[in-house]
Please model this.
Amino acid sequence: MDPNNREPAEYGQNGGGDPPRPRPPRDPLTPDFGQHAPALARTVQLVSGDFLLTVNPVDGSEIENCPPGERPTRPAKLTPAARAEADRAAKPPVPAGPGGPALPLLARQDDRERLVRLLARGRSVRLTGPAGSGRTSLLDLVAEDCADLAPDGVVRLNGFHRTADDLLHDLFYAVYDAPLHRPERDELLACLREIGAVVVVDDLEFGGTALDELLDATPECAFLFGATPDVPAPSADSPLEEVLLDGLDRAAGLDLLEHAVGRPLTEDETNWAGDLWFESEGLPLRFVQAGALLRQRDQLRAGAGAVDEFGVFEDALPVDAPFDPEDVEEIPLPALGEAAAPAPLLASRLSASARATLRFAVALGGEVPHQAHLPALVGDTHADAALGELAASGLVSPVGARYRLAAGVLTQLEAAGYTDDVEDRALAAARHYAWWAGHPSVTPERVCAEADAVLAALAVLVPGTSPPAEGEESATVALARTAAPAFAAGLHWSAWERTLRFGTEASRLAGDVGEQAYFQHELGVLALCGGQLDRARAELEASIGLRGALADKRGTVAGRRALALVADRAGDTPGVGVPAGAASTSGEEVPDARHEESQSPPGGVPAFAPRGPAADNSTFVVHRTSAPGPSRKAGSGLKGFAKRNLVAAGAGAMLVAVLGTVVTLGATSDNDGTPPSDRVGVNPSASQGSGDDSLGADRVEDDKNSGDTGTATSRPTDPGPDGTYGTSDDPTPTDSARPSDDPSGSDAPGTPSNSPSKPPSSSSKPPTSSKPPTSSKPPTETSKPPTETTRPPTETPTETPTDPPSETESTPTTSDSAGGPTDTTSSADAPETTNAASPTSSDQVI
Model:
């Protein structure tokens, strides 16, 4: 039997038995003939300080404390081969297409030797020169001369749109092998102190104290900064050496122009170049562009034979006459004004793809897309050769590993009308980068390399964002949504933060609440990684609120986890700093969940004083303030229903204990001549508190009589109209009743009462007598008065029973002290004793 052609009956494929054989994979050359599986979300896990960060582009990044096993060890330095590869990646790529002539560095030998000498002595230097003065070319030559000066070699960094913190992290990754690891500040500084290298930073944009911090963090490095005169100067006590770079002299300018043209200059061209030198103050960039103008003039005279096989000048007007240097006068030289601002004239003689590339660069604020993106943006398969044309014409210049429009070119092209379709070009670039950044084959490092172009597109489109049509998606929001996770995974966190800010604003203008919640969640996670706890809490609470409105369960859980970590880092107690609506809806544990479930009733918790010689036996109330958080209705939901049942059960048990105690004490306290039954009202002790549907127990007050006897009788009272309780059933206040300073809340003898009294009920039963137990004896004259404390006399103790007492009550006995009969309830059955709080409207019976 052929194993590749199984019989269905034999192998059980028609009815139970072995499962069917899996289908063979599709032909990789024809993937479009089958259904595409949805692309999996690209999640990246990295370590940031003490945190383990999982970049999740779907629901939001998840952050937690890094487990000990996941924390990376101290990073090691790169090998020489890896360092050479990193240095190669820091240089701009060679432009595709026909390149211009190789130009020497003229009249800069003295400056070059001076810079090398200073760096060899370990001094840091700032090279200051105007844009277009050849500063970048000089830095490249000096870097080659200093390759063997330091143990860690030469490190090239780009300072364009970079802060001091960004440069510190860039230097760390250029020397150390630390993939997916962003060290905390102390660890970063410890590693940087061990770097000994010559660091070349071009296009520096900061100075002052920020520059001092950069130098202090790297004491073993010698820096060579390149900056323009408009950059803030270093501080007065900075150890930097300042070197100024001026323009070329007239002879050097003419020599550079001849190298750019590739032939000797005629007399008219020499005079024309002299006027150009005077107007441009000898900037080398102007002579490079002037050489491009003369080459285009020669090519125009050459006619159709000068058109190359790629059709670079196919749109140029053909000239039949062959090129003859004697006939150059037939095409006049550019005017001095055109030579001073040559960008429009140079662009008009370039190919259509090069002009389209210039329009994209103008739309992106001077950022030139990478040559690999030009065919898709322009719509021409050979558009990548446009970058070579622009570089040979002097219209673009290298900035780090990328290209930008050269100094002054952006302003000249804007004046020439290249801003007519800025929004359309920026929108096309945004859609392209959104598709490209979200493709599974594109690594985060490649997306980070295009960060400047992506951010430029967002900067143009975000202010004009509007709600999209039904069924469509905002291109601005989509670009920020796909680029932000890539920047986070690629450890380009300054671009990550700017993208998140753009995305938050764009989603707000577009009315996309879900995307706005995502961006704010990411901003909170980023702030938490940076130690900005207040900002992290604000962003996460806003995100949780938005996701709660959308019923986004998974996103809400991720936000609550991050918010709990913020509270833990801030040292907040449970329940503090938790946003509204933080109750868990998915089985997740919320910081204040257990606290809310164990909250005491508003009236407090009844407690009994510990037994002892100095302790009173009276009952008092402890009022506990509920934890901050959202207000909840007392009887709402299953939780409130369970609380009511618990309070009602406790009130019933307390009712039995109170009535038994009152009857027994009344029977044993017959010294005042009044039957105890006269003091027992007919109103029930279990009543419904005001403002609540639960049952509570009547409060018990000890009325201590004045005189030599010192006998105290416990009298139950009824709640008043405001839910509080009086201290006596006698409507007439006596001099022996006043608020007690005793912590138990009992009244001291001989003092007037400040509590409102209630008249006796008209339906009370006739008095009856009760025989006291034989074990009781009246107190003597020598009994000690109750111990007084510093309790304010205006406070009236109240009691709210919540916990059910023990079902077994011990037999009450009388005391030899003036405090009255003592409670013989066991200490194991009595709650904890705490001082009573002043009764307020919130301390009502539940």
